Amino acid sequence: MKIEGITDVFFDLDHTLWDFDKNSALTFKTIFELNKIEVDIDMFLHHYIIINFNYWKLFRDEKIDKEVLRFKRLNDTFMAINHPILPEIINKLSKDYIEHLTNYNYLYENTIEVLDYLKQKYRLHIISNGFHEVQNKKLENSNIQHYFKTVTNGESIGVKKPNPKIFNHALDCAKTSAKTSIMIGDGFEADIIGAMNVGMEVIFFGTNKENSEVEVKQISNLIQLKNYL
């Protein structure tokens, strides 16, 4: 069923449009080769994905800063696979990771088709918790920046999703209202609950909801947005 009355569509970037896991895996392969780090990449990524998710939650909740996030997620992963690395090497890998991450810019299936479809009917925007300098490069290097009227990064305004301030700031920048806006993202607490709390319509992108008691519209492929918008 089509959702009526929407003028503005807000997207999360990582894990929603930009295929973070695939691009991140390719980046680690590159920087491990550059730094002559010999590990089982699949085992490393198996642990890293979980550890990174947990540290991002702490960062989102403002319990750690960017430097702690970037160091600890790598250090803890190497410890988890019993391959301890000197702190100076961790710092080098952390820097290299950020430098090379935006060299890979795979998007989720049907991203371009859906953005082309939506831009004919709506104003499109980004709300991201990612780091300002990295997120902008992702948009530029994947050649999708031109679809979006505004881009709001949590780092730039000092708060992160699900804090209502970031949603209200994004709405103000877009010169629109919550009642005519919809948020699409993979983070159930950050994107979906956060947007609902300011009165926005929502669509959850993914298969695993952090709180299954809350019923919302849900898609597993971006092409399914055509069913609602």
UniProtKB/TrEMBL annotation:
InterPro entries: HAD-like_sf, HAD-SF_hydro_IA, HAD-SF_hydro_IA_YjjG/PynA, HAD_2, HAD_sf, PGP-like_dom2, Pyrimidine_5'-ntase_YjjG. SUPFAM superfamilies: HAD-like (SSF56784). It holds the Pfam family HAD_2. GO terms for molecular function: 5'-nucleotidase activity. This is Haloacid dehalogenase. It comes from Pseudalgibacter alginicilyticus. The lineage of its organism: Bacteria, Pseudomonadati, Bacteroidota, Flavobacteriia, Flavobacteriales.
